[in-house]
């Protein structure tokens, strides 16, 4: 058999992929054959495993050599062990089944007399440890951290860091050991100790600081500061010196840990201010080693609550980095300054010239970062200077920069322009330099600027015409010019002064037509550009006075009536026909009124408002609706009377064609209970009521088709032309998606088409739509095309409304039958009365909601959209009671369990003092798809996995099964993970008494396992407790994937379904891992905020 060197030579000598594959296959076969021979020399085994490592680096399969790695591990020879540990670390991972055989070998090596063997075992354990292996071997690591040998202590500390990341429950075993390492005099041990402590603190912060790691280690800040001070002021130490700086690695680790400990704590920040100033001032920045320390010091300064002077010092260090010749240093400085500019804008502004110099750097990554930083520096005082520099860079910039640059310059000009003239000139320059890279939003903003600034229009049209004559290659410039010339062609033809010292040359009608004709016949006339120019020419036909030019325009339009592009062809044909109706043509093509600019329609847009975190159900919340389709035909109509006036003007004609109308005045005040039903019908295209909740509908649609009867009607808006023909979302739940398309003709007749789309995998039946309109209008509702909607199929229903002079206002009610949900009328709101409040523990309340109007149907696991008087948002809370409680004819009710959450308005209202809210009337609607039984019917075995208040939907499901509704469910495994309440009593854990009673009374067959965290001494060891007659296994630790796998049992059993509900971190991890264990379709999950 060839040696490793010869094998590598043979692979490298292969001239084709096929030759290389042949060499590898031949050698792999030889290695397999050698492994099958018993008793061969240990050097042959080492040679074979070394070849496997080379095959691994080539990406080849090496699974057949895993057992040989274990044999090398078990060998008494150091050479064998060294290669065996390396191969085990690379060729095995925690998912390999053979890993269970490694545990014993590692345990033996961890107690070996040779320190290097122990070091190899620690490295291997840190690299491949699984949860089980970590739990089995952590006592050995705990002992090795305390050994006198510094080499082993270093390795053990790093191994402890790895297994604590893998199994967070083991952190508490290493806190005391890690504390001892912080005072170790050996630099290597201290470095590893700092790494361990930093990892423990960061991991705890990611989990929300439950264990209080940061607070525990803050007591050691003075000692850490003293150590850092000694390193930064010490003289030459040959054993730790790196290019003249004492142990820079240790200094960086100290600074990082100090940053972690000081974030968010003013006292700790004050303790480390002086040492940070000392490090930042005294560290040599001429060498890369010093720069690494300075960079870590700057990050610490900027993250903690440092005083302003210290932050300015940090920014100045980054500014000095920008002059460094090393590209990496400059890149790091630019990247950090982008984050800093929001904290210390004035300090960063001082380095503006240096940043702008970086725009000319040969390295593209430096240029990109400098460009991003330059845009963040723009403000009212420097916008002229910076935009001028950026325009100069735009002229020579790579094409990949131009889309971003044009957008950013447009945003900056829109936000900080000193005047409209400067704004226009800047954007015109952008269109001239990079018109092919301008996004549609920027172009729209530019056109809107011209349309809304009357004093700028003559100047704008003349400048655009002049620039367009010079260059027709820039698409956005051509489109903006075409729109402006078409709209304000009369101002262009009149001429006038567009610069103080220069009169514009006279423009003739023929020149304009010739220019547009030139563009249309060039290769630069894209489809959109052609549409712009065709429309502009049509507008000019009403601006021109020469009949010959109007005829020329008509002929140009006629040539495009045979265009291959349907859109262009349609426009040309319609425009051509308009020439036969001269009066209508002039009315339709009048100048457009200036658009009203709302804050949200600006280029920059409003700053996105951050949604408050909701401690309860993360759910899709629909708009509140009426309880029933009310009889509005007998109620007085709250419709504005039509305006009496003279004959319609051209503007009125245009508004009528586009479907607009005069907006009705908004209703002031909040309507009382006796208010006319008609006032609560929603304007289909108007803004939503202030008491509504976020809807899945896109914001651009402006749809709010349903409204709560108790909320004030919104101001009515005229129907937008953009809404014509769009499919607007109306309803999306229970596998049914309903959208509506509205069409209005000039006579005011409206046709609305409702499209029903079955998004699920089961057929829906009895689908239909009911609608109501004000009594001043007539509604013709045609039958639905098909009441049966198969999976993935669609059907439609048409309605026609006449007599609608303004915006269309409808109330809809959608009904259908779902195989699992039964008869669904999900648009209904149900009135409930808050009749009882129980305090379960310090963080959870239980609410009983009596149904005022009688029984309702819901599926176990569904939630309630809960509408509270005076609260603008609806709360999403799971129903915890069984469906039977809401179906009884005597006192039907719903039950909710709500966790305290002050930032969530509905939850905060429900946590007000009992005397303030008891007896209040609320309105609720049922929703949700996380239900039992699943679509395929009741399973044989159910595994419920609950985390915290994630138990709520599972409680309803378990109650449903206990009532005998889960026919066929023979085995229920309930796994419940929860923090122990402050009382220290298991009985105060939400629903634990109710769950155990169902199992103890033998209403449900199976077992309950409880995993308790933050238990302290209350639950210190694993035990089996009898609670309400049920045996409950209590584990004082976090829930693991292994626990869920054990509950599932046979992976191949298709009759097992797993329900997972809890915090996102828990559900995401479990669902991802369960995908490798069971069919993902048998895993149902619900995430919580």
UniProtKB/TrEMBL annotation:
Compositional bias, Low complexity, is annotated for 686-711
Localization annotation = Cytoplasmic vesicle membrane; Golgi apparatus
Residue span, GAE domain: 723-833
- Annotated region (Disordered) at 592-624, 641-726
Which GO CC annotations does the UniProt entry carry? cytoplasmic vesicle membrane; cytosol; Golgi apparatus; membrane coat
Keywords assigned by UniProt? Cytoplasmic vesicle, Golgi apparatus, Membrane, Protein transport, Transport
State any GO BP term from the record. Answer: intracellular protein transport
The residue ranges flagged as biased composition, category Polar residues, are 643-652
What are the protein's GO molecular function terms?
Answer: oxidoreductase activity
Stretches with biased composition (Basic residues)? 608-621
Pfam families the UniProt entry points to: Adaptin_N (PF01602), Alpha_adaptinC2 (PF02883)
| Positions of the FAD-binding FR-type domain | 827-941
Which InterPro entries does the entry mention?
A: Adaptor_Complx_Large_Subunit, ARM-like, ARM-type_fold, Clathrin/coatomer_adapt-like_N, Clathrin_a/b/g-adaptin_app_Ig, Clathrin_app_Ig-like_sf, FAD-bd_FR_type, FNR_nucleotide-bd
Statement: the UniProt record of this protein carries the keyword Transport: yes
Q: Which PROSITE patterns match?
A: FAD_FR, GAE
Q: Which family does it belong to?
A: Belongs to the adaptor complexes large subunit family.
Q: How does it assemble?
A: Adaptor protein complex 1 (AP-1) is a heterotetramer composed of two large adaptins (gamma-type subunit APL4 and beta-type subunit APL2), a medium adaptin (mu-type subunit APM1) and a small adaptin (sigma-type subunit APS1). AP-1 interacts with clathrin.
Name of protein: Gamma-adaptin
Q: Which organism is it from?
A: Trichoderma harzianum (Hypocrea lixii)
């Amino acid at each position: 058999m060839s040696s490793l060197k010869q094998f590598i030579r043979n692979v490298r000598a292969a001239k084709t992929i096929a030759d290389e594959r042949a060499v590898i296959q031949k050698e792999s076969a030889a290695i397999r054959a050698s492994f099958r021979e018993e008793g061969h020399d240990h050097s042959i085994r080492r040679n074979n495993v070394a070849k496997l490592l080379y095959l691994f680096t080539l990406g080849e399969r090496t699974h057949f050599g895993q057992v040989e790695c274990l044999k090398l591990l078990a060998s008494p020879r150091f050479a064998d062990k060294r290669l065996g540990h390396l191969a085990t670390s690379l060729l095995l991972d925690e998912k390999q089944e053979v890993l269970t055989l490694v545990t014993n070998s590692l345990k033996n090596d961890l107690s070996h007399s040779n320190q290097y063997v122990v070091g190899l075992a620690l490295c291997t354990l840190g690299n491949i440890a699984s949860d089980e292996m970590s739990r089995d071997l952590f006592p050995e690591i705990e002992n090795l951290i305390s050994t006198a040998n510094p080499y082993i202590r270093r390795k053990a500390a790093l191994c402890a860091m790895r297994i604590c990341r893998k199994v967070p429950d083991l952190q508490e075993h290493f806190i005391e050991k890690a504390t001892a390492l912080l005072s170790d005099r050996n630099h290597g041990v201290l470095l590893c100790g700092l790494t361990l402590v930093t990892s423990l603190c960061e991991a705890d912060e990611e989990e929300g600081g439950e264990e209080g790691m940061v607070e525990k280690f803050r007591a050691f800040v003075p000692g850490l500061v003293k150590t850092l001070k000694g390193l930064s002021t010490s003289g030459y130490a040959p054993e730790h010196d790196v290019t003249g700086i004492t142990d820079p690695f240790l200094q960086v680790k100290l600074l990082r840990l100090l940053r972690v400990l000081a974030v968010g704590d003013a006292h700790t920040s004050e303790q480390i201010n002086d040492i940070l100033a000392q490090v930042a001032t005294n560290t040599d920045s001429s060498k890369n080693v010093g720069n690494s320390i300075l960079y870590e010091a700057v990050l610490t300064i900027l993250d903690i609550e440092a005083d302003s002077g210290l932050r300015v010092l940090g920014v100045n260090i980054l500014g000095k980095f920008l002059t460094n010749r090393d590209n990496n240093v400059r890149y790091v400085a630019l990247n950090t300054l982008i984050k800093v500019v929001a904290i210390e804008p004035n300090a960063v502004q001082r380095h503006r010239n240096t940043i702008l110099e970086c725009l000319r750097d040969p390295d593209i990554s430096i240029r990109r970062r400098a460009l991003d930083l330059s845009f963040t520096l723009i403000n009212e005082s420097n916008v002229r200077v910076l935009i001028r520099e950026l325009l100069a860079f735009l002229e020579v910039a790579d094409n990949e920069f131009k889309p971003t640059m044009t957008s950013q310059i447009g945003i900056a000009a829109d936000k900080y322009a000193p005047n409209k003239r400067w704004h226009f000139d800047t954007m015109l320059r952008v269109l001239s330099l990079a018109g092919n890279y301008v996004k549609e939003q920027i172009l729209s903003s530019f056109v809107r600027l011209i349309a809304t600034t009357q004093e700028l229009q003559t100047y704008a049209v003349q400048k655009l015409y002049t620039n367009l004559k010079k260059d027709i290659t820039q698409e956005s410039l051509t489109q903006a010019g075409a729109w402006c010339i078409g709209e304000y062609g009369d101002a262009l033809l009149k001429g006038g002064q567009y610069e103080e010292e220069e009169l514009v040359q006279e423009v003739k009608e023929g020149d304009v037509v010739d220019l547009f004709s030139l563009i249309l016949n060039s290769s630069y006339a894209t489809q959109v550009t052609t549409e712009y120019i065709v429309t502009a020419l049509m507008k000019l036909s009403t601006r021109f006075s020469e009949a010959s030019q109007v005829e020329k325009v008509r002929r140009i339009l006629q040539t495009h009536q045979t265009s291959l592009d349907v859109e262009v062809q349609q426009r040309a044909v319609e425009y051509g026909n308009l020439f036969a109706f001269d009066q209508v043509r002039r009315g339709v093509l009048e100048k457009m009124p200036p658009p009203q600019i709302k804050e949200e329609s600006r280029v920059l847009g409003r700053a996105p408002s951050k949604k408050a975190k909701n401690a309860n159900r993360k759910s899709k919340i629909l708009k509140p609706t009426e309880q029933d389709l009310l009889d509005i035909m007998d109620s007085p109509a709250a419709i504005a009377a039509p305006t009496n006036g003279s004959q319609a003007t051209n503007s009125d004609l245009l508004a009528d064609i586009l479907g607009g109308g005069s907006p009705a005045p908004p209703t002031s005040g909040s309507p009382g209970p006796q208010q006319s039903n008609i006032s609560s019908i929603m304007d289909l295209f108007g803004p939503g009521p202030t008491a509504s909740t976020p809807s899945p509908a896109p914001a651009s649609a402006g749809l709010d088709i349903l409204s709560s009867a108790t909320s004030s009607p919104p101001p009515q808006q005229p129907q937008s032309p953009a809404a014509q023909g769009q499919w607007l979302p109306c309803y999306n739940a229970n596998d049914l998606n309903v959208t509506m398309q509205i069409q209005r003709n000039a006579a005011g007749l409206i046709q609305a088409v409702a499209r029903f789309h079955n998004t699920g995998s089961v057929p829906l039946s009895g689908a239909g739509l009911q609608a109501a309109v004000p009594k001043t209008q007539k509604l013709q509702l045609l039958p639905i095309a098909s009441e049966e909607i198969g999976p993935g199929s669609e059907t439609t229903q048409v309605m026609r409304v006449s007599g609608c002079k303004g915006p269309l206002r409808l109330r809809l009610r959608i009904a259908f039958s779902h195989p699992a949900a039964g008869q669904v009328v999900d648009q209904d709101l149900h009135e409930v009365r808050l009749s009882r409040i129980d305090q379960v523990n310090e963080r959870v309340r239980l609410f009983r909601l009596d149904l005022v109007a009688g029984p309702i149907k819901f599926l176990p696991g569904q939630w309630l959209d809960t509408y509270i008087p005076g609260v603008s948002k609806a709360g999403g809370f799971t129903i915890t009671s069984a469906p039977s409680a809401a179906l009884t004819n005597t006192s039907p009710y719903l039950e909710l369990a709500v966790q305290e959450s002050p930032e969530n308005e509905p939850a905060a209202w429900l946590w007000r003092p009992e005397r303030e809210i008891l007896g209040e009337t609320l309105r609720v609607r049922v929703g949700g798809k996380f239900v039992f039984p699943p679509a395929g019917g009741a399973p044989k075995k159910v595994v419920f996995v609950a985390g915290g208040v994630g138990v709520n939907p599972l409680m309803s499901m378990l109650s449903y099964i206990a009532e005998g509704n889960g026919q066929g469910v023979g085995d229920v495994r309930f796994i419940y993970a929860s923090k122990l309440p402050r009382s220290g009593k298991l009985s105060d854990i939400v629903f634990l008494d109710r769950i155990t009673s169902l199992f103890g009374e033998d209403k449900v067959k199976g077992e309950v396992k409880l995993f308790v965290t933050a238990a302290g001494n209350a639950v210190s060891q694993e035990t089996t407790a009898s609670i309400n007659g049920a045996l409950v296994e209590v584990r004082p630790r976090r829930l693991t994937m292994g626990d869920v796998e054990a509950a599932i049992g046979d992976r191949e059993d298709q009759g097992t379904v797993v329900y997972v509900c809890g915090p996102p971190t828990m559900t995401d991890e479990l669902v991802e891992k369960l995908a490798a264990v069971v069919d993902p379709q048998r895993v149902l999950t619900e995430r919580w905020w």
